[in-house]
Amino acid sequence: MKSNLDLTKVKETLTSVVSSPGKVTVVGSLNVDLTARVEEFPAPGETVPAADLTYVPGGKSSNQAVAASKSGANVAMVGAVGHDAYGSFVQRSLEDAGVDTSKVVARDLPTGTALITVNAAGENTIVYSAGANRSVSRADMQAAADVLQSADVVAVGFESPASMVATAIDVARSASDANTETSANVDQNNQPRNHRNNGGEARGTRRSPQIILNYSPIIDVNPGRLIGVDIVVVNEVELRALGERYGFAQLPTQGRGGLANVAGSKIDEHVGAKPEDAPTVRDSASSMAKEDGADENGLFTTATRLVAAMGLRGLIVTLGPEGCFVVESEDSAESGDVNPTSDADRSDRVNPTALTTNGVYVQGYPVDAVDSTGCGDCFMGTVAASIASGRNLLDSAGLATFVASRAATKQGAQSSYSSADELADQLKHDQANQQTRS
């Protein structure tokens, strides 16, 4: 089912995020990006002059934290920088955006650094040194347990080591042990109740945070490390690679229009299910697949099967200026519940015989784009902020689509992210233009 970007709904969602801000804790990378612009890349052993050299705060996680904070959430950052000027610069940038950096530790190591060279054709080369980012330990995570366990959403990604991501999930999920269930939160069979998360009041019943994973970059990781993840956000290339990692997507590297069909039999081998037991598709998703050709190119099928194979509540595939694609497990979509259950209650979510899915394609919002740097991070941070405030996955994806599109109209990453007030003004302006055209 296609969903045009409804600016009235986007405005409503933004208002909700601002008026009922949730708590987001972002765990991961803090970098400085050094960029030199040259006419041509140097050959080995060659020295070439650069037109200019700039340095800006970066790191996918740091970008996401800034985007979430500017969207209206209360944000804390967990990570490490070096005892150097760049570390102070990166940390100050976060603080200027309203992010709590009390859980960012400083180490006798260089701050994570990306050395970027851009030629006259706009091509780039990047050399990345993780530096202090790789020093974050389990002890650091334990020291940050308060902001991890009190968060409405914990956002993680693989620009950090998989072990760091797994530890963050483990510490955050242990909130359910710290917050003992009361009789108000269990039914007569001592099973956790499903809670709708549509506002601040409902958030008070949660036992542990919602975990959102930006599976980027794609790395080899033991699926056992990802137990506890509720929502995954990927771009189209990452979706294809992730499907191949799980052994059921054989997709070529060309653009979306040329993607091949997913090899359906391999997922059944992976999860030990018969072909006829694969997840069924609800009417809205199947009609969307026929309408947009998603079933023909394997995009929708891959996303659907990943939700089942990974035991997710939802998955968002970003498609750049074309928008995004949202797949939810049926239990999450129908109940409106975006609160994670305990790990024990998640066992049926990794069995595709127990899952059906619901999918919607959200069209992109047209803008005159000048720079897409950091737009994916902007999308991820905005989704985290929206879900933390109690909005459902589809509303959150719609808001993030609009916010990321606005970021593409400015140069840079963090510097291109608009504040909630700026977004509200832009929405008012765009709605007025729509009414004039109609």
From TrEMBL:
Please give the cofactor(s) recorded in the UniProt entry for this protein. Answer: Mg(2+)
Which Pfam families does the entry mention? PfkB
Active-site residues are D377
**Polar residues bias spans:** 176-192
Catalyzed reaction equations: D-ribose + ATP = D-ribose 5-phosphate + ADP + H(+)
The UniProt record gives the binding positions of ATP as N235, T318, L319, G320, P321, E322, G323, G376, D377
Residue positions annotated to bind substrate are N31, V32, D33, G59, K60, S61, S62, N63, E159, D377
EC category name: transferase
- InterPro entries from the xrefs? PfkB_dom, Ribo/fructo_kinase, Ribokinase, Ribokinase-like
Q: Where is this region: Disordered?
A: 176-207, 329-352, 414-438
Q: What is this protein called?
A: Ribokinase
* Gene source species: Corynebacterium kroppenstedtii (strain DSM 44385 / JCM 11950 / CIP 105744 / CCUG 35717)
